[in-house]
Amino acid sequence: MRRRLRRIVFGPHGIRAGWGVLLFVAIFALCIGAMAFVARRLMPMPHDDGSLSVAAGFGMECMQLAAVAIATAVLAKCERRSPFSFGLQGRARVRRLLLGVGYGFVAISCLVLVLSYAGYLRLDAPSLHGGRTWVYAGVWGASFMMTGLFEETLLRGYLQYTLTRWIGFWWSAVLLSALFGAMHALSSAETAAGLVSAALFGVVFCLSLWYTGSLWWAIGFHAAWDWGESYFYGAADSGRLVEGVLFTAHPVGNAWLSGGAAGPEGSLLVFVVLAVMAVAMRAWWGRRHVRSPFADKQRLAPDRR
């Protein structure tokens, strides 16, 4: 009986994919629920203007990252693997992270500057000066780095690797990217373009995972994009504003082009950025004939329970 039960739960690659996904979601939900219960009693509420405070933002990211780290560690232990084996392994971690940071900031800067030049975004003069500029830059930098770590490891870490054994890499990528886009619907200020762009960002991040076998480039890009959008340019990020911003961005005119209350990533022009990113990644990694670690048929052996 025990051997039969073990065969039902475990396969040749560890916990069978279906059970692994269910256990991961259950552990994550349990952890996040318990932490949220405590946080509601300890964490400061948002400001009257609706902006997110440094303390609330940092605390929320710590809580979310801890929950996904616990879920990943538990499942990795059950499968006798390192928790870093789900996209955080590799020798070039720092280089890929820094490359992602650079590309992320350049990408959001190009989008903001094009919107500003076209008259769909107005930037006010810097509102921070002296030491406060660096303090807020550092704190929000750390907070958004945790955002990148959390969102990438949540949807493109254990879940992506495990679902790949079940339905293949790209079906998993499409499914989890659609979920990533749907998560942004929790914001009442989000637009249809913003939801679609969020899902497509997920696909682009999966493209980097496909080529490198690592999440570090995506983590760096994700963190720098959010940092640039929220702190540096002071724009809304999926409708959310933060306190202590350098510049302050105001959408002007047609919301389909300016992004409206959703922020620059709610603009139709973000699809140009996404297309350029995808083509550049394909040209760079494809030109070097990089073989995806996910292309190994043995790794993609079906595991459908």
Keywords:
305 residues; mainly alpha; 4% strand; endopeptidase activity; hydrolase; protease; CAAX protease
In short:
The chain has 305 residues and is mainly alpha-helical.
Number of distinct beta strands: 4
Q: What is the alpha-carbon Rg in Å?
A: 20 Å
Low-confidence stretches: 297-301
Gross morphology is globular
Proportion of residues in extended strands = under 5%
Q: By helix and strand content, what is the structural category? A: mainly alpha
Element order: H for helix, E for strand: HEEHHHEHHHHHEHH
* Mean pLDDT across every amino acid position: 85
Detailed description of the structure:
- With 305 residues, the chain is mainly alpha-helical.
- The protein contains eleven helices and four strands, in the order αββαααβαααααβαα.
- Helix 2 (17-42) runs antiparallel to helix 6 and helix 8 runs parallel beside helix 11.
- The longest helix has 26 residues, at 17-42.
- The two termini are 18 Å apart.
- This is CAAX protease.
Q: Secondary-structure blueprint of this entry?
A:
Blueprint: H1 2-9, E1 10-11, E2 14-15, H2 17-42, H3 54-78, H4 93-117, E3 121-124, H5 131-156, H6 158-167, H7 169-183, H8 192-212, H9 216-232, E4 248-251, H10 255-258, H11 270-287
Helix pairs in contact: 2-3, 2-6, 3-5, 4-9, 5-6, 5-9, 6-7, 7-8, 8-11
